Amino acid sequence: MANLSVVTPIYNEAQGIAIFFEKLRQALSQYDYEIIAVNDGSRDNSWEELKKEAARDKHTKVINLKRNYGQTAALNAGIQYSTGDTIILIDSDLENNPEDIPLLLKKMDEGYDVVSGWRQNRWKGQFLTRKLPSLMANKLISKISGVFLHDYGCTLKAYKRDVIKDVKLYGQMHRFIPIYCKWQGGKITEIPVRYEHRKFGKSNYGLFRIHKVLLDLVLIKFLDKYMYRPMHFFGGAGILSLFVTFIATALAVYFKVSGQKDFVQTPLPIIASIFLVIGIVMILLGIMAEMQMRTHFESQNTYPFTVKEKVNL
Known about the structure:
The protein is an alpha/beta fold and 313 residues long. The chain has helices spanning 17-28, 46-56, 71-81, 101-108, 127-145, 161-164, 177-183, 210-226, 230-257, 268-299; strands at 4-10, 33-39, 60-64, 86-89, 114-119, 157-160, 188-193. A 7-stranded mixed beta sheet has the order 3-2-1-4-6-5-7, sandwiched between helices. Helix 5 (127-145) packs parallel to helix 8 (210-226) and helix 9 (230-257) runs antiparallel to helix 10. It is elongated and about 90 Å long.
């Protein structure tokens, strides 16, 4: 079992794999490490190149996914198969410099559970098209999540196993792992790291992903506030809807009694009926969500809390 696990997703990176692994091994030479490379359904010769690297070095372990599931799923697979007490995530496109890994580990020795990379000098000459949207997105994520980082999109991060081992990732949520770790009581910081333009292949990132990130952010915020108390969300919405029903009904009756308008002359009865149905449905959804949450914790034999340390237990 290695003390350090380095997880890297691979997608159509055949040209640069040999150089990447050479740099990675040089950076890790002083550590007891394992490299877990996950081929995410590449359409080039990436898998063949990975098998060569695995044959060359016993520290290198490779996984071949059946199809392209996306970066989040590939990272999740690597994390699940890792064994190290510390887990490093890094892209294989050489935009992240493996030589920065020791810097992350040195910072982690100061007592941090998560050390995130902050890429420097990334968008020179692309202020309006890339830098400004990136700044806005990172500030929005930081504001909503309460975890303040300058560069959520940087894959290069170091994690203590305790705060990442139970994380289940979906969608584009790999960039939000620090937020999950914060929920577990993790101590988080970031340090500047180098950014280098890719030498091979074409970037798989683009502005078209922003809407997916924002949707995942909405889900993250919902889980943060209501994962352990879904009835507060659904029930609150249900009660608000029933309150609207009450107001609409009261107004309709008032207009009828005062002789101003009959029921058929105002949309208030229809509004009251619609919000009555919505209110009942939302409350029922809250009850079902509460039952599902409790069933999940009981079936998994888990609890909605994390213990940091124990004495005499």
